Amino acid sequence: MTEIIASADHEARRLSRREFIKRVIASGAVASSASFVMSGCAPGARRAAVAGSVERLITLNVNGQDRRVDVLPQETLATTLRYKLGLTGTKLSCDRAECGACTVMIDDVTHYSCSTLTHTVRARKVVTVEGLRGPNGELHPVQQAFVDELGPQCGFCTPGQVVAAVALLKKNPKPTREQARHAMAGNLCRCAAYDNYLNAIMRAAGNTAEIHHGA
Ligand code: FES
Ligand code: FES
């Protein structure tokens, strides 16, 4: 009996590894679950495999929708959003939590998605720049203010700047210019459009006295 179980365990490991290699090569193009991998194996082997595995086919709440997606155990949220869910508004630049280009909101708080493991945001609400539009596709007031103030230059950092500004105004609807500058410090802009962005935030907040053109 012991030999039968050992043989089944060996077979389970062999199948798991084969499946693993296939999926790495297929770069997450196929759905995964431990029960699927282990179908046809002995019950003891199946239990052992499930206990040592990580569920990869998970549900994420992104922009108000539940999305089923196959996620590697150490995959970052930026990768999942951009390359598996097609939400390319979230940019990847430094990929090491330094620039803010990849900023998204998780439960209304900003996070660098390049440095957040996707598996840690299950059961939380993720909002990307694509999720800020109104029900009829209209721009979010912060996005409109960025347009009105001609905020971006090259635009690469802009989605992260917009998301960070939206999160700021959710927490503090009437920030001073200095408070906004402090709150936006985690979002770098190689074009140095910082004053444009601060003007836009002041406009979105209705604080026109602190819009400084030509500053
Ligand atoms: S790409 Fe994430 S902080 Fe720079
Ligand atoms: S507008 Fe070019 S990096 Fe910010």
Overview of this structure, please?
The chain has 215 residues and is of the alpha+beta class. Among the domains are: 2-51; 133-215, [2Fe-2S]-binding domain (DNA polymerase, domain 1). It is built from 8 helices and 5 strands. The protein has helices at residues 2-25, 34-37, 43-51, 77-84, 141-148, 158-171, 177-183, 194-204; strands at 57-62, 65-70, 103-106, 109-112, 125-127. Strand 3 and strand 4 form a beta hairpin. Helix 1 (2-25) packs across helix 3 and helix 5 (141-148) crosses helix 8. The radius of gyration is 22 Å and the shape is elongated. The chain starts with a helix and ends in an 11-residue tail after the last helix. Bound molecules: FE2/S2 (inorganic) cluster (2 copies). Residues 92-95, 97-102, 112, 114 line the site of one FE2/S2 (inorganic) cluster (FES).
Task: Briefly characterize the structure.
The chain has 8 helices and 5 strands, in the order αααββαβββαααα.
What is the CATH architecture annotation of the domain at 133-215?
Orthogonal Bundle
Please describe the biggest sheet, giving its number of strands, its sense, and whether it closes into a barrel.
5 strands, mixed
SS summary, helix count: 8
CATH fold call of the domain at 133-215: DNA polymerase, domain 1
Apparent shape: elongated
Tell me the number of strands.
5
Helix content: 25-40%
Low-confidence stretches: 1-8, 15-49
What would you call the structural class?
alpha+beta
Q: How large a portion of the residues is in β-strands, by DSSP E?
A: 5-15%
Name the CATH superfamily classification of the domain at 133-215: [2Fe-2S]-binding domain
| Rg calculated over all Cα atoms | 22 Å
Mean pLDDT: 83
